[in-house]
Specification:
The complex is a heterodimer of chains A (456) and B (486). Chain A is of the alpha/beta class. Helices cover 33% and strands 28% of the residues of chain A. Chain A contains 14 helices and 17 strands. In chain A, the strands form two sheets. Chain A has a nine-stranded mixed sheet with strand order 1-2-5-6-4-3-7-8-9, sandwiched between helices. In chain A, strands 11-12-13-10-14-15-16-17 form an eight-stranded mixed sheet. The longest helix of chain A has 21 residues. Chain A is elongated and about 75 Å long. Chain B has 486 residues and is an alpha/beta fold. Chain B is globular. The mean pLDDT of chain B is 91. Classes of the chains: A alpha/beta (456), B alpha/beta (486). Chains A and B meet through helix 1 and helix 3 of A and strand 9, strand 14, strand 16 and helix 11 of B.
Chain lengths: 456, 486
Amino acid sequence: MSVSAQPGLDWHGEDVTIAEVLSALNKLRRTFAHSEADDRDHPHPRDCVMTLVSVAPNSVEETRAILASTAIATHHPSLSIVVRDQPHVRAGRIDASVMAHPVDSKLNTPVPCELIVLRVQGAAGSHLAELVDPLLVSGVPTYLWWLGTPAFGRGELMDALRIADALVIDSSRFDRPYQSFLALADLALHSHKKLGLADFQWQRLSPWRETAAQFFSPQERRSLMKGIGEVGIDYVGDGRGNRIAAALLIGWLASALDWKLLRAAAGGGGVVSAIFQSDGWRPIQVAFRSVARSHLTEGEVSALHINGSTGGKSFSLSIQRDPQRARRTGETEFRRLHPTGGEDDAAMEIAQRKAAQHREVLVQNRDSLHHTATGEPPGESLPRHPVVMARERRRADTADVLLTMIDIGDAETLRHVQRVPAEDEATMLLNLLSMGAHDSVYTRSLSAAAELMRSL
Amino acid sequence: MVIFGATGDLSSKKLLPAIYNLAKQRLLPAGFAVVGAAIDDLSDDAFRKRAAEVISEHSRTQPVDQTVLSSFLQAVFYLKVDFGKADDFKSLQKKLDELDRSRHTAGNRVYYCATPPPTYETITEQLKAASMTNGSGFHRIVVEKPFGSDLKSARELNKIVQKVFHEDSVYRIDHYLGKETVQNILAFRFANSIFEPIWNSNLIDSVQITAAEEIGVELRGAYYDRAGALRDIVQNHALQLLALVAMEPPIAFDANSVRDEKVKVLRAIRPIEDGDVAHSTVRGQYTKGWVLGEKVGGYRDEKNVASGSLTETFAALRLFVDSWRWAGVPFYIRAGKRLPKRATELRIQFKRPPHLTFGRDAAQELDPNAITLRIQPEEGISLRFGAKVPSAGVKLRSVTMDFEYATSFLVETPEAYERLLLDCMIGDPTLFIRADVVEASWALIDPIEAAWRDGRPPLQMYEAGTWGPASAAKLLEADGREWHRP
């Protein structure tokens, strides 16, 4: 082992043991406490609200985790452990750095920001619980933020979950969205009873959920909920792509309004059509499809349309993201390869037409199950043209604009534009954690979305 | 102070560094001298050289103060002593007499047995035969745990020692009791008016005691394979902690008042009947696994451990204290080796409020109130209570208020041995174990040991680096509870 002391309250060690890391952390804590107090005063008690363990598969994710953890620590004293896991390196060793810096919290007392970075090579990385357990702060929640795609179905994830109160993921970043999403839903069902789940994707859907919920919120519109007949969602992507956000949004509606899934089918262009049934036996047609939006990240929802009628009065709610910007977008290579038929305004019509075709196909081929012939998963089809997906798909967020259009009966169309400020990753993470990772609405929506995905 | 077994591990790692630190704090009496006594053939100078090395390596205060050290070493002497030879004890007596004259120690003697228990009988008898237990000054003997291996052997051991020394002069040392945080349990309970009124079965749901070690048996394989976790940790450390947390307020903070109350608690613990052992206890043994990021072997692969050993390296118990204060409150104890981390703590879990005004959804992340007394490491106390999450409607979460010794006082916490050695020198046995306390502890352990020898419950294997066998979690799950993660 070689150890070098750096200026300030930093420690760095190569080929170290966790016991040495723990010892270094304790020394830095003592030094911090003593440096804070003068001769007459006692040091302030060390405070800590959580332990955030981030698992990063590569250096890019490691940097993301460090940035987000440090940003959180400026407001919330916490211990952050970033584990850069390199199990494929045969020679096992742990390089570690520990930082315990006071950060300006704009409060009277400096907030200690404790950050441990463990670069783990070899098999030790597959035993995350045993690796980080000795470092955890007792009595405060431990959140496990798995950057990229969690190791679903593998022992290392289950091992790591033993020490976690909640798993934080970003389902928009899953490498194999279909399989990973279903695995996530399975995990929610079968993990230990106290495990919470927090999904950045769910946080990004907040403006959509809030806007839709606000539409039905006035007393006089409550009855419209029972009259919903059609729901359409456009999501950004190519072919089936990552439709987790769309599925979660449908799952949220279905679980909240107690809709039962009757049948569903999927086809080319990422089109999904499904029929749900409300508790009043009313059928609800649901369709979603992929559209090209070069300024948005794959999988993001770009439009939500809800149509229906009740008491002889029809209504329509349309929420679109960045409609102006979308129109300015020129013809792209992607669009030429994968024509999707138009802008958001026309999207519903096409989606509904395709959905109708696929319902017919579903009924005609109910027994033949074309996927058994193609070998593809049920309801899935590959893009017709090979496309190389960029792994780093998410760009820096900018402010979003949501245009909401409301038509009820013969009344004039109500238009409402809202600016949704973009949130950086640290803020979103903080929002997820501060609200508690045990969001029953999310798990309920996840379950309903998974049911839909499985039926495809 | 005479240290029998002065060249051994305990003396090197704990006793000599502790005495040096007492010297550094100027807490040793004037003229104090240490005489090392062991089978090795060493001169005074050779022993001093060795002492300087081990003190430099193991002292809690670093770097070692060379001025204090060289002054201290002048008071260190050595004599080769074969415990079976009466002549060696006569030589020792002669040496001590010389020191009395040269250093004016007035005949005061502390005999520290840093040796295995089977030697206690020989040492005490030789001391008596050499007339080293009477005369002017005090004559005290310090013996290390284990105090016997069952009730019968503990009684025999007590009889042997008490044949030579009066019980008031016998200092049975359990170093856990010398830890500041253990002593602080009494301060926390009896020096604050807000805790004692709630310290009973009206508000307390359960108590958990965890004594976890991340290490394996290391060089103690031969001893540990005979003892196991129940005898090595539960019988002494864990039951002592239980007694401190459950005892009634003593009328004074003196040796007999405190120990009287402790023994009352131990006697009030409901013995686990033979038929209950299978579902009130868990025993486990570690297999290979990962601890602190390193791959480790199983217990049966350890040095000096039998290849088919059935010795438990993990023990968990559910106990009840049958008293007005604790009626119906379970005390869960778990102790083990090769667990994820070193942690000793007491957790006082309070009952949930009788009615949750805010609804179940709001309180989804709200745990019951709890007080955690952390004995080691990160010695301190935490209080857990519910608070409203800001700007989130009505949503409640548990938050923690922490007190830590290391950062709350600008002084280093002394080693347990420093406190205990000093107490012995000044004649305060409060933190030492009395004979009746030892016997009361063994009376609880013996029926469990007997059932375990019959294979009830069966030995469960657990992977090193985990919190023991699955049946340990089930022990609490059966009561609708779960272990707290230290």
